[in-house]
């Protein structure tokens, strides 16, 4: 299992790779330095034991502290059920607002609230997503555009680019209103 922590407001470039211990025992690192190795020979090296063999170099303490602080922040302002309730309300509201543009803007994934996360990926067949992102940015709305590091997924749907709006605990219905106001303005202008 792999996940990044910037999704919960930690610094970028910190991530977690969780593997079963039995699988890790069967893997040999391709390279090593620092505490990841026990012994170096001229043409090979002997790796350290687990988990150190896969953690060469100095640990990134600053990013690890940012992870800790992001978790502390989330715990200080919300309980998990409140995050879930807020998420459900915003998803429902977002999908309701989407109804006004759905004839021109296609949503990938379900238009239903059930089993949905608060990430919405769209495309407009006749307009490039990077242009939409630029126009949104001019109105202080940050969205992601292009292929989102998911080219195989995009190829499956015969899409070259999409734009994505993501919500999080700091977003509100007013943010959603602004997103759709600007999107409707873009649709009228193009």
UniProtKB/TrEMBL annotation:
Task: Report whether Signal shows up as a keyword of the record.
Answer: no
Question: InterPro entries of this UniProt entry?
Answer: Aminotrans_V_dom, PyrdxlP-dep_Trfase, PyrdxlP-dep_Trfase_major, PyrdxlP-dep_Trfase_small
Q: Which residues form the Aminotransferase class V domain?
A: 2-179
Which domain of life does the UniProt lineage start with? Bacteria
**What are the alphabetically sorted keywords of the record?**
Pyridoxal phosphate
SUPFAM superfamilies xref list: PLP-dependent transferases
> What is the name attached to this protein's record?
Aminotransferase class V domain-containing protein
User: What organism, scientifically named, is this protein from?
Assistant: uncultured bacterium (gcode 4)
Q: What is the lineage of its organism?
A: Bacteria, environmental samples
